[in-house]
Structure formats: C-alpha cells, structure tokens
C-alpha cells in the first residue's frame, strides 16, 4: 500500500503558522519579485482568484476583500517542509519527497491494521506539531494514491482528510469521478487528445479498447499509468538522485544596463551553483551563462554562452570567473537586461573526478569552499562572499510583503512574553 501526503495550500498555510490571526481570512502568496499568485488559501480560491494570475490583474479584487498578500518566503517554507517530512519518516521509513509539499510513503512490508486510522494519526501529528493541514490518500499504487488524495482533499467533511482505496468497488468509483485532465501525468495537450477520443474520465482511460491509443500517444509511460490506475503497482518509490544539471536564474528587481551590476548577479548565481554541487558531492564540466534582454527592445532577446572546463569543479570561484569571462563576451553596452542565470551541466560524482596533468584548479579553492560551507551551515547565512558580490543580500528581489524568517533567523524568532 502507498500513501500520498499533500500539505494543503502549503505556502499560505506556512504563513498562518506564525500568524494565526489570518486563519479564516483570504491569503495569497506571490512569486519572485511579487509577480504572480502561486498559493491561495481556500478563502482566496472562493473569491475566484486564479492560480498563476499576475498580481496587478487581481490587485483590486484582493483589496476589495481585504485579502492578505505575502511575498514568497522560501527559507521559511523549506524549513517547515523539512519538519513535516521528518514526522512522515517516523511513520514510514520508505519515503519519496515528491515536492516541497508532497511525499509518497511505501508501506509494503509493514503491518498496518487500519490505514484510515493510521492516516488520521499522521494528519493529527503534523497538525499538532507543525500546524500544517494535510490530506492523505492510500491506495495499492502511487497513481491511485494521487486519486485517493484528491478525494480526501475534495470531501473533507466525509473523509476527515483521509481516504483509502482498498477495494475494487472504491477504485472504480474513484476512477469514474476523476476527470481525465486530473490524472497524474496527463497535461493540457494530452487531455485534449484524450477528450477528442472520448476518454473523459480515468475509468475511460483504463478501458482495454483504449490501450493501443494510449500506447501510441504516451508510449510505455502511458501503459504504466494505466496499470497503476488498475491497481497494479509498477512505479516504485524513487530514491533521491543527484541532479544532472543545476540552474540558478532570476528576474531582476529592476532593469539592469550596467555591466558591474550584471557581474554581481552572475557571480552570486555562480557561487550558489557551486554550493549546490558541493551539497550533492558533485562536480561539473560545463558552465552556461544566460542573459535575457527586454523583448520589446529587440527581437532577439535570449543569449547563451557555454564553456567546457578542462577539469571538473565545484569551486564557486572557478565557476564565477568562467561565467564572468563569458558575460564580458556576450554583454552589449546600452542594452536593457531583465533576467540572467548560470547553469552547470555534465555533472559527475565528486569522487569520480579525474585530475588533469597540465591544467588543474588551485587546490586552495577546496579548503576555502569548505570554510564557506561550514560557516553557512553553522549560521544559516551567506556571509563570506566574493569581493564583487553584494555583501548585504543574495537574492535582490522585489518582496514588499515578506514575512519574517521565524525559524531560520535567530534575530527574527518569535518572542514570548511571560
């Protein structure tokens, strides 16, 4: 048996953890630079605020209903997510963290007498310890657990946030209720093709006469999904894997034309790429610099340049120096730049690195990187930086509605007056 645990309206729920006065009130969380709505409380959904809507388009509606608006506070969300996952590990050691607010649990080999009661225990523990509401779906396969989770979320008054698909009767009823566009892995384009074929529900999707069509359109992935919806588990829990590429890209708070400002951003992105490589104990060969100009100024507005190093590296200094060199080559004076990024690819494990006879990195880099990583791990802040970086801020973004970092910054922790 598998379970899918989904944190309800996760970002909005995280904001309520330390500000319970907003319980029952409409809340929205905005994306980087306060651009679009990326999380809504149930109350905000009822107002008709669509997911992904630009903030300026729904500003009046938000004001009209006194909705609370937050800038995205990823350090807080990441920390609370990690705490939720730790609780889930206590209930089941086989866990796949599917996203920041979702996790699959695999109960195969465990003796659970009543999954519904077990789910309610998990839900209550997360609510009591972290104050994050969750929905939990149990089923014999991961795709069916997704369906069960949607039912638990959709009908909380009947399910109490937990639903178990443990009989064929329940499975068929759930598949009949699930629209084809809501099936895990079916996107907008695929759902249009399915509907044109008169496949309107998950129950239509699993019919034998549709198997050839599914195989033609989705290949083996579609067949596996069909088997999963039939209750046959063919998609196992994914073990954590190292990323094959790492990209750090951001839109700027305001337009940039000065190359020195661009160098500061590129260096910062390169240093973060180095951090992520070292965290997963990897090195990279390829470094790509990305720039985006104002698309209304020029028809060609995306620019990339890549360089392959003679040796693998995870040093932020090497990545930054290489990226700055490429930036100098693609920068156009007088142009307005909106976004930039650094991407590293051809990633190999750190212990598989081959040393070069004639060209090698300065060995002092590794010691310096270790000191920087240790300091950041201890303080939670990026205080040691390259000289061309902004020493006061890493992510320079528009965050006019940012809440405090209640759990990741000792200076912003809650004070209790006794």
UniProtKB/TrEMBL annotation:
<dbReference type="Pfam" id="PF13438">
    <property type="entry name" value="DUF4113"/>
</dbReference>
<dbReference type="Pfam" id="PF00817">
    <property type="entry name" value="IMS"/>
</dbReference>
<dbReference type="Pfam" id="PF11799">
    <property type="entry name" value="IMS_C"/>
</dbReference>
<keyword id="KW-0741">SOS mutagenesis</keyword>
<dbReference type="InterPro" id="IPR025188">
    <property type="entry name" value="DUF4113"/>
</dbReference>
<dbReference type="InterPro" id="IPR001126">
    <property type="entry name" value="UmuC"/>
</dbReference>
<dbReference type="InterPro" id="IPR017961">
    <property type="entry name" value="DNA_pol_Y-fam_little_finger"/>
</dbReference>
<dbReference type="InterPro" id="IPR050116">
    <property type="entry name" value="DNA_polymerase-Y"/>
</dbReference>
<protein>
    <submittedName>
        <fullName>Y-family DNA polymerase</fullName>
    </submittedName>
</protein>
<keyword id="KW-0227">DNA damage</keyword>
<dbReference type="InterPro" id="IPR036775">
    <property type="entry name" value="DNA_pol_Y-fam_lit_finger_sf"/>
</dbReference>
<comment type="similarity">
    <text>Belongs to the DNA polymerase type-Y family.</text>
</comment>
<feature type="domain" description="UmuC">
    <location>
        <begin position="2"/>
        <end position="187"/>
    </location>
</feature>
<dbReference type="InterPro" id="IPR043128">
    <property type="entry name" value="Rev_trsase/Diguanyl_cyclase"/>
</dbReference>
<keyword id="KW-0742">SOS response</keyword>
<dbReference type="InterPro" id="IPR043502">
    <property type="entry name" value="DNA/RNA_pol_sf"/>
</dbReference>
């Amino acid at each position: 048996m598998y379970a899918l645990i989904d944190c309800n309206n996760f970002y909005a729920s995280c904001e309520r953890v330390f500000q319970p006065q907003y319980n029952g009130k409409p809340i929205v969380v905005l994306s980087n630079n306060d651009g679009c709505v990326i999380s809504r409380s149930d109350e905000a959904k009822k107002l008709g605020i669509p997911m992904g809507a630009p903030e300026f388009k729904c500003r009046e509606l938000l004001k009209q209903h006194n909705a609370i608006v937050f800038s995205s506070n990823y350090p807080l969300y990441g920390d609370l997510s990690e705490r939720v996952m730790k609780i889930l590990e206590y209930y089941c050691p086989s866990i796949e963290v599917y996203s920041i607010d979702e996790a699959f649990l695999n109960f195969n080999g465990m003796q659970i007498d009543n999954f519904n009661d077990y789910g309610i225990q998990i839900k209550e523990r997360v609510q009591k310890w972290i104050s994050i509401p969750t929905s939990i779906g149990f089923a014999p396969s991961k795709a069916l657990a997704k369906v069960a989770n949607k039912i638990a979320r959709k009908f909380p008054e009947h399910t109490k946030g937990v639903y178990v698909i443990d009989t064929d009767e329940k499975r068929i009823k759930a598949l009949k209720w699930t629209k084809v566009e809501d099936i895990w892995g079916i996107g907008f384009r695929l759902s249009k093709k399915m509907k044109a074929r008169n496949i309107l529900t998950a129950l239509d999707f699993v019919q034998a006469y549709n198997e050839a069509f599914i195989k033609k359109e989705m290949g083996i992935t579609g067949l596996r999904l069909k088997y999963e919806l039939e209750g046959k588990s063919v998609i196992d829990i994914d073990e954590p894997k190292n990323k094959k590429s790492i990209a750090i890209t951001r839109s700027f708070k305001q337009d940039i034309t000065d190359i020195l400002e661009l160098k500061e951003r590129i260096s910062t992105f390169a240093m973060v790429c180095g951090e992520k490589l070292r965290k997963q104990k990897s090195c990279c060969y390829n470094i790509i610099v990305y720039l985006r100009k104002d698309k209304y100024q020029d028809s060609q507005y995306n620019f990339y340049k890549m360089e392959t190093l003679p040796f693998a590296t995870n040093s932020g200094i090497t990545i930054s120096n290489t990226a700055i060199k490429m930036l100098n080559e693609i920068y156009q004076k007088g142009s307005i730049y909106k976004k930039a990024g650094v991407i590293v690819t051809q990633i190999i494990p750190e212990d598989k690195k081959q040393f070069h006879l004639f060209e090698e990195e300065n060995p002092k880099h590794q010691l310096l990187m270790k000191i920087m990583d240790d300091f950041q791990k201890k303080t939670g802040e990026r205080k040691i930086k390259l000289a061309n970086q902004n020493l006061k801020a890493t992510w320079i973004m528009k965050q006019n509605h940012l809440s405090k970092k209640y759990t990741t910054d000792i200076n912003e922790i809650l004070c209790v007056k006794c």
